[in-house]
Amino acid sequence: MVTRLGTHEETTMQMHDHRRLGRELGLFGTDPLIGAGLPYWLPDGATIRHTLEEYIRTAERRAGYQHVYSPVLGKRELYEISGHWSHYSDDMFPPMDLGGEQVVLRPSLCPHHAIIYRSRSHSYRELPLRMAEVGGMYRSEPSGVLGGLTRVRAIQLNDAHIFCTLEQVAEEAGGALAMIRQAYRDLGIVPAHYRLSLPGPGGKYVAAPELWERATALLTEVLDAAGVEYEAAEGEAAFYGPKIDVQIADPAGRESTLSTVQVDFHQPERFDLHYIGADGGRHRPVMVHRSIIGSVERAVAHLIERHGGAFPAWLAPTQVAVLPVSGDELPQAEDLVRRCAEHGLRAEVAAPEDGSLGARVRAARLVPYQAVIGAREAAAGQVALRLRDGRRLPALPAAEAVTRIRARVDARGTGLWHEDAPEGDPSPASRG
Ligand SMILES: [Zn+2]
């Protein structure tokens, strides 16, 4: 799509460039000495990332996932078995020679999870077995395309593999799609569209036409059951199977895949995975690969751009800015920060020496809640709350303000106060 952007769009694009905002907000950075495509996270960026990862782990635990850790390296042979070596080596780092062995930075977590599954025997009663990990993987992106958090060489992936029977695939894939939609509501992300990614011409796909057809039929069933509109795209499948991709768009309209659900008959075969069925015999499980928010890097880049740095309250690095009108109210301000911390809220004092009240309000414009304490509020044990969107609330007892902010933060989504309408289902945006 070639469109000449008007001045307004250009300005909006610059405003929402995650690289510029990331630098200004002190979220992440890069250094030539560490290397291109290898960003580091500053404290506020690390807070966002940690909060996001914990959110995902909590959602996964509730949905019956078990978490594992696996190493970011593996022997070359592991990826030869998985098929990555023959289908994906262009994107892999060259192997390292180590005492007569070749070791590779992993291009995906799947082979490790298959090996963990295989490490002990499983009964059909254990299925579906849902194995999750937020783990590192590596991609040898050419230096010319690297930038910010969207094209990186070191990736933290929110990944999971569900080992299940063929009969369980549709429900498990549907459950993963429901988790993705809930996460998008909580994060204020609107998908550009849903895509059914199919193989295309060329040799990068494993050959097994019958299995491709069966997997495609299952994913189509899942999309139809969810009632979402989608488009089929040839040449976008993983080398081992078709997938549902949830596409997002950056402010310039460039699309990328954030979340994905895949059905895979190939790797269970390659790793000779099995479970003991009710009949006492050995059966082959299916692997459903799924990622709710994709890579942490891409998710945070998108959140920065989507919200222009005004993150949903539950994700904001600082959730409450406490502004004493003068130095006289500093003790009450510090007391409120302590009270917030006790309730698990991230609060900071913006002290009078940082500037006039107006200047401090402006400096804290991306903070969801500003608690102003003047002489009157201090005397009454109250705070006057200002919301990031400009609303001002009548003075509240400090304890009540903290409880109500805590409740709104726990409700997630992008609303700032309890009477805000719950966010609707982010069905694909109608882009005009
Ligand atoms: Zn996988």
From TrEMBL:
<keyword id="KW-0862">Zinc</keyword>
<keyword id="KW-0547">Nucleotide-binding</keyword>
<dbReference type="Pfam" id="PF03129">
    <property type="entry name" value="HGTP_anticodon"/>
</dbReference>
<comment type="similarity">
    <text>Belongs to the class-II aminoacyl-tRNA synthetase family.</text>
</comment>
<dbReference type="GO" id="GO:0004829">
    <property type="term" value="F:threonine-tRNA ligase activity"/>
</dbReference>
<keyword id="KW-0067">ATP-binding</keyword>
<dbReference type="InterPro" id="IPR045864">
    <property type="entry name" value="aa-tRNA-synth_II/BPL/LPL"/>
</dbReference>
<dbReference type="InterPro" id="IPR002314">
    <property type="entry name" value="aa-tRNA-synt_IIb"/>
</dbReference>
<dbReference type="GO" id="GO:0005737">
    <property type="term" value="C:cytoplasm"/>
</dbReference>
<keyword id="KW-0436">Ligase</keyword>
<dbReference type="InterPro" id="IPR033728">
    <property type="entry name" value="ThrRS_core"/>
</dbReference>
<dbReference type="InterPro" id="IPR004154">
    <property type="entry name" value="Anticodon-bd"/>
</dbReference>
<dbReference type="InterPro" id="IPR036621">
    <property type="entry name" value="Anticodon-bd_dom_sf"/>
</dbReference>
<keyword id="KW-0479">Metal-binding</keyword>
<dbReference type="Pfam" id="PF00587">
    <property type="entry name" value="tRNA-synt_2b"/>
</dbReference>
<dbReference type="InterPro" id="IPR002320">
    <property type="entry name" value="Thr-tRNA-ligase_IIa"/>
</dbReference>
<dbReference type="GO" id="GO:0046872">
    <property type="term" value="F:metal ion binding"/>
</dbReference>
<feature type="domain" description="Aminoacyl-transfer RNA synthetases class-II family profile">
    <location>
        <begin position="43"/>
        <end position="312"/>
    </location>
</feature>
<keyword id="KW-0030">Aminoacyl-tRNA synthetase</keyword>
<dbReference type="InterPro" id="IPR006195">
    <property type="entry name" value="aa-tRNA-synth_II"/>
</dbReference>
<protein>
    <recommendedName>
        <fullName>Threonine--tRNA ligase</fullName>
        <ecNumber>6.1.1.3</ecNumber>
    </recommendedName>
</protein>
<dbReference type="GO" id="GO:0005524">
    <property type="term" value="F:ATP binding"/>
</dbReference>
<keyword id="KW-0648">Protein biosynthesis</keyword>
<keyword id="KW-0963">Cytoplasm</keyword>
<dbReference type="GO" id="GO:0006435">
    <property type="term" value="P:threonyl-tRNA aminoacylation"/>
</dbReference>
